[in-house]
Task: structure prediction
Amino acid sequence: MKIGVVKERKDGENRVGMTPDGVKTLLDAGHRVIVERNAGTGSGFEDREYAEAGAVLADDARDVYAESELLIKVKEPLPEEYPFLRQGQILFAYLHPAAMPRLRQALQASQCIAFAYEMVRDRDGSLPLLVPMSEIAGRMSIQIAARLLEKSAGGPGIMLGGVPGVAPAEVVIVGGGIVGENAARMAVGAGARVTVLEVNPARLRQLERIFNGRARTLMSSRQNILAGLKQADVLIGAVLVPGKQAPKVVTKEMIAAMKPGSVVIDVAVDQGGCIETIDRTTSHTEPTYVVDGVVHYAVPNIPGMVPRTATLALTNATLPYILELAGKGWEQVIAEKSALAEAVCYVRGSQVANF
Result:
């Protein structure tokens, strides 16, 4: 199969859909790979490495789209790429269509076969292609929060972990999944006071065992969220409903109760956001805005800040599924009801997944 890899065009997105080692694996399996020039530069992978791995280099994204039977991306195509999608072409990327009506229309109109990384689901219910980026996003959210708490960034001038004799920052994490757990790990490691709110009692017990008293765990309820936010210096929104738009569990009134200069980071923003005052996405170029004196961070591609780490982790996770899809074809993958079958969103204009 002809497999294409293009340069990502979202602001600040330096990840790439495939490493040179991944390209070599695909060629060894009998496939042909076409890579847009400079696609991997942001992640530290040069054109020379892709060529040495056996890829054909293309000067323009349009050429890659035109040649490819299977197109591998990190993030969803942007509007300027919509015209390049074509009937019968397979697209495999993080799509998050529930929160993007224009993308849904474009995928339907193109008649392509669209598979979403974030919807691949193994038999045990796990989301193997979402996990590595969720781990990175959760950990990065705390690094970002630490910077935004600095006075020069518009914050109150608080050090996340405090110092002897001075209290550390209060970090509240709403959602105890992969993002929430990894955010908590980083915040606890930095010395912050951490509270994790989660609706699933079994997951709360799991988190209690993981942190062994180093983070407080609470049932996620309106009352508990509001009480936590009144004391919080940092709020991390980490609520995920796989394949669906995130529910707004933090209201405007709750945000208004937070201290001036406190920081809100909604990691669920690529699924529409779980915080009501996150009413738009931001970018790595202009990452924040202020509502009621609270700094809001709403960048939907946080792992793009650490593209080398993220690209390596992403290829490790996606490559087995790409090999399966390229080897069997989309029809057989769907017929076998494999993990990939869970991820198909559109087939030649027909919506398959329930968003």
Summary: The mean pLDDT is 96. The two ends are 30 Å apart (CA to CA).
